[in-house]
Amino acid sequence: MPSLTSQSFIKRLIQEDYKFFTGVPCSLLSGLIYELEDQQEARYIPAVREDAAVGLCTGAYLAGARPVMLMQNSGLGYSLNAFTSLNLIYHIPMLVIMSWRGKDGKDAPEHIIMGDIDKQLLQTAGMEYSLLNEGNCDSVLQKAKKKIGEEKLPYTLIVEKGLFDERH
Amino acid sequence: MKGTEAFQELLPLIKDDEPVVHANGFICRESFALKDRKANFYMIGSMGLASSIGLGVALCKPEKKVIIIDGDGNVLMALGTLAMIAAEAPENLFHVVIDNEVYESTGSQRSLSGKVQLEEIAKSSGYKNVFRVEKKEDVKPQFLRLKELPGPNFLLIKVEPCFDHSTGRVTHTPEEITERFMEAVG
Ligand SMILES: Cc1ncc(C[n+]2csc(CCOP(=O)(O)OP(=O)(O)O)c2C)c(N)n1
Ligand SMILES: [Mg+2]
After folding, report:
1. Beta-sheet pairing, B129-133 with B109-110
2. Which chain B positions have a beta carbon within 8 Å of A67's beta carbon?
3. What pLDDT is stored for residue A1 in this prediction?
4. Does any domain span residue A166?
């Protein structure tokens, strides 16, 4: 099985022409963000809040880029109004890479509820997602490409603890 | 000066191909009613995000002057975005704020901009050129001056609330707004 690393995943996204990145950090995504900062072909713009990151991605898409936002699932609450009153109705797509804190109720208290309901929130909002794992990178990126390219809607990849390296 | 007068002064100064991102509420409706343009992005929801949308456009279209027409309530909701704009510092970004010191769209409840100077926040965040105008005759020269200077620039226009409620809503669907804007911006 090909091993998935922060480096290989970022390279893969750049190959798929995703070159505009923003977001608010999560430790589960720290390896990815450090990789991004080293890329010549891609830019990573630190956002102050997740809704501002959605706005930034929206502008980038309107100007011809293929934007990606990285966030902790706690940022889903902050960004839901942006998704429902902007991206979903204007058909403005983006790739969302969201970490899953609070999985199976085993995490710090502040993550437990969101870790339990984040997928339901996405479903309720009619936003499609996949759980990324070591072996499904090609197929989920294919699904994302279809959603983003054809339906012009956001697509979310959920990242569990341990999938990518954490750099502290 | 009344809010409508500020729009009447500045809209004719915007070139056809210059992208303009509008804050939600009356800002969209006023601009749409006075002069609809394909390069206008009318943000009807997502209050606060006109500034981050404008930043995204400016970063990906460095050859175009990108104008954000914002409201005081919208700016206050997304103060952190001023820091993002200042940190990325796109020279082609021009942030105009129609400051009526109220949330006029929802019934003119007071906002904080009667007590807090938004242009000072922009200046200390690191916008390159910041100007505040209160007189109608100053809008045109200051708008033109700031539009030409390398940015990010910030123009605060103090106005009196005056929105005519019979002004219609934006009639294009959100999807049409996206398509028109993308076509115009290229
Ligand atoms: C998240 C959110 N909260 C509240 C509203 C309701 N709302 C719509 S427009 C508006 C006022 C915007 O104020 P400002 O930017 O000062 O523009 P003005 O109405 O004064 O022209 C508000 C509060 C909303 N659309 N979204
Ligand atoms: Mg106002």
Report:
1. unpaired
2. 56
3. 47
4. no
Measured in angstroms, the CA of A90 and the nearest CA of chain B are apart by: 5
pLDDT digits (tens, 9 = 90+) for B7-25: 999 999 999 999 999 999 9
- Domain span at residue B99 reads 3-185
Number of CB pairs < 8 Å for A and B?
114
Identify the domain containing residue A135 by its residue range: 6-159
- Sheet hosting strand A20-23, strand order edge to edge: A43-46, A20-23, A67-72, A95-99, A155-159, A129-131
| CB distance A58 to A86 below 8 Å | yes
Strands A67-72 and A95-99: parallel
- CA neighbours within 13 Å on the CB side: how many for B54? 37
Between the CA of B5 and the centroid of ligand 1 the distance, in Å, is 20
**Which residue type does B5 have?**
E
Whether this model's ipTM surpasses 0.90 comes out as yes
A90 part of contact set with chain B, CB < 8 Å = yes
**Omega before residue A2 within 30° of 0, cis:** no
Whole-angstrom CA distances from A71 to A28, A96, A124, B111, B115 are 10, 8, 19, 30, 34
Burial class (CB in 10 A: 0-12, 13-18, 19+), B166: exposed
**Residue A18 CB neighbour total at 10 angstroms:** 22
pTM of the model: 0.98
Residues in chain A: 168
- Number of domains composing chain B: 1
Best CA proximity match to A80, nearest among B75, B46, B43: B46
Torsion, Cα B143 B147 B151 B156, to 10 degrees, reads 20
CATH, residue A24: 3.40.50.970
Residue A168 lies in a domain: no
Is there a domain that residue A167 lies in? no
CATH number at residue B114: 3.40.50.970
3-state helix, strand, coil in chain A (%, to 5): 50, 15, 35
DSSP B125: H
Q: What SS3 class is residue A78? A: helix
